[in-house]
Amino acid sequence: MESDADKIEGIQEWRASAIESLVWNGQGGFSEVVFLSRRPGVRVPAMAGVAVSQSWAQGMSSDNVKGLVLALSSSFFIGASFIVKKKGLKKAGASGIRAGSGGYSYLYEPLWWAGMITMIVGEIANFAAYAFAPAILVTPLGALSIIIRQETLHMFGILGCVLCVVGSITIVLHAPQERGIESVTEVWDLATEPAFLFYAALVLAAVFILIVHIIPLYGQTHIMVYIGVCSLVGSLSVMSVKALGIALKLTFSGMNQLIYPQTWAFTIVVITCVITQMNYLNKALDTFNTAVVSPIYYVMFTSLTILASVIMFKDWDRQNPTQIVTEMCGFVTILCGTFLLHKTKDMVEGSSPSFAVRLAKHMDEDGFELEEGAPLRFQVS
Questions:
Q1: For residue range 80-133, what is the model confidence (pLDDT) as tens digits?
Q2: Judging by beta carbons within 10 Å of its beta carbon (0-12, 13-18, 19+), is residue 62 exposed, middle or buried?
Q3: Could you tell me how far CA 275 lies from the centroid of its own chain?
Q4: How does pLDDT run across 14-37, given as a tens digit for each residue?
Q5: 3-state helix, strand and coil shares in percent for the chain, rounded to the nearest 5
Q6: Cα–Cα distance between 215 and 283 in angstroms, integer?
Q7: How far is the C-alpha of 55 from the C-alpha of 49, rounded, in Å?
Q8: What are the distances in angstroms from CA 168 to CA 144, 343, 348?
Q9: Residue 267 burial (CB count, 10 A)
């Protein structure tokens, strides 16, 4: 029979062995959990689920979880708002002049207003998400709203949805931790570092050239011109929205940030960028087919936003190459799903993808016929 001293020695040996067996991976979790038996040379691997749960618990901060929930809620509300507003527009058009023909009868339709309120709620949730989570986590999840707004799905539509979901999960599982910020002045310091100032200067120069020299010549014939302005300005607007969201979050928590001029400077940038962005996005939607504008705009806007976030907030400095490559693979997966959803959204059950492409060339989502020689332009009779 073992003495008390032997039992105590055995417990201490087991504790030391167990502690030594926790292999810290240096990236927010335990990559391996191995318990050593009291017999020399015997290693008993722990359950893989324990390691995964510990890694997940360490990898997702409370702020990232809040940002994730807000981003998912935003996608749901914004996606649902498209369906509700579309039904409201159809109902208003049945008894009055359609919006596409210059009518405003939809303003008297309660269903349209319900959709508009739903969209506002979604945008508020999206705004709040940037205050809690990095842009590299929040922005790509906007693709999920495309899934919500699909009224009918065929085989390729289901595949596109699966790709979007898989890509989103990949990004969520490997997203960087939100940077700890205690004052809006810290965000201002990040925004005035040479690297981001250089990026902002390039963006402003490119936008100036596009607006002054390129749009008058090619705005009506080249889809990338309007979308380029929207995406470039949009990347700056998201950074300003994130800064303003952080300032409001800190203010509501008891640390008043409204006394700092930097908060109001970010507010002015947000207003200016959003007005510019919406102006040229409306021009793009009015000139070209929505089915073409949406995926291209999503790709350019999301890519430039991630680039701006990486430069300003240094998201990738806190990650290793494997995590970065995995995030990019998740993003590319979402892009493939988004492209597939838009490219085949007009397919009917049993039709081929080529038929859907031909159909999309001649008809946009609101029923406007398109010119044979210019498939991306509206032809309004």
A1: 888 888 888 888 878 777 755 667 777 888 888 898 899 899 989 999 999 898
A2: exposed
A3: 20
A4: 444 444 444 334 344 444 444 444
A5: 75, 5, 20
A6: 11
A7: 10
A8: 8, 20, 27
A9: 16
